[in-house]
Amino acid sequence: QVQLVESGGGLVQPGGSLTLSCTASGSIFSVSAMGWYRQAPGKQRELVALATSDPIKTLRDSVKGRFRISRDYAKNTVVLEMNSLKPEDSAVYYCNAIVKATAEDGGGPYWGQGTQVTVSS
């Protein structure tokens, strides 16, 4: 059993900053990638940022220069620093991790419960 626990969402004014954090715990052999997705009402869930174990970091174009993703590999934690937030960044943000529970496990995606980010004046 793997759990992803998120924290850090909330309400912020345009131009403000928020930091999201997510920690994976439970039966973990390895974590190959951790990242953040978001889903706004009426829209599909989209990738925001991803950090692999290589390490390779990916950010969607609309957040480049404003968001930063970092990982603590020893603690199985991923942090998303969001600056210069815009109303269009408002969404439920979900933590995602690709986790192997055992050495023989093929690995699978796990999701956090989601945290609301609202950017509004």
How many angstroms separate the termini?
A: 40 Å
The computed structural class is mainly beta
Q: What general outline do the C-alpha atoms trace?
A: elongated
Which percent range fits the helix content? under 10%
For the sheet with most strands, the description reads: 7 strands, mixed
Could you give the order of the helices and strands?
EEEEEEEEEEE
How many DSSP E strands?
11
> What are the low-pLDDT stretches, counting only 5+ consecutive residues below 50?
none
| Residue-averaged pLDDT | 95
- As a percent range, the share of strand residues is over 45%
**What's the Cα radius of gyration?**
14 Å
Quickly count the helices.
0
Describe this structure in words.
The protein is an all-beta fold and 121 residues long. Helices cover 0% and strands 57% of the residues. It is built from no helices and eleven strands. The chain has strands spanning 2-7, 10-12, 18-26, 30-39, 46-52, 57-59, 67-72, 77-82, 91-100, 108-111, 115-119. A hairpin with a 4-residue loop joins strand 5 (46-52) and strand 6. It starts with a strand and ends with a strand. The model has no long low-confidence stretch (mean pLDDT 95).
